[in-house]
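Hi V.,

You were right to ask for the full record rather than a summary. Here it is.
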Amino acid sequence: MTSLASRDVPILVISSAASSERRVNPSWTISQLKIKLEPITGIPPSAQILTLRLPASQESTAVASSDEDVTQLAGWSLTKHAELHVTSSDLFSGPAIASSSSVPKYEMSAETYASLPDTVLAYKKTHQIGRFDPDATENVETKVANLWREVAIGGINVGARCILRPSTTRRGTVAYVGLVPEIPGVGPWIGVRLDEPAGKNNGSLLGKQYFDCEPYYGVFVRPERLEVGDWRELSMDEDDDMEEI
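Predicted structure:
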């Protein structure tokens, strides 16, 4: 029987570089935790300062020891959704980059752009590419048919577990299969509820809800990006792409 102390606990890791939910095992030592936190926070273990804040509590507890190589995290109250704040003892900060948002910018009108001879638009018109192709309607129908064929062949159905390629760790569950008029492009899109907050939305686009999930846990991709299978959720020490938050 697996002891409670050896079970992973989902906590929120917060630093100046990222904020994401991660699974931490109480049997890890503080040193092991810091090594695993470096790819997420960008802070080397020797410079990490860890503080733990429990849910519904305003008090923070330092996670530190005189011998961090042997001191296990089980000595702290690791509870679900606790916050682990990671700061750096290195006070160096790089030079600030001035914002260019207030700098006036030249904007060309669509009419002026369409009249220019040496542009991408002019090239497409001359070579009948894209919407200027007389066979564009037939090509679009072929593309849509091919996309739906990928859905069928790939077994992409709502509720199926999947992985987003080319990543080996961005896993989730198919939550929507169908058209998404809010996204440019024809044919079906696949809505995925990710296991980690590595997405772009909460299952909605421009006010229309396609599926339910927490913010940053939702993403829409084309069928070719998915591989359906028995993809279980990964624990923190199995995550090879931890820097991608």
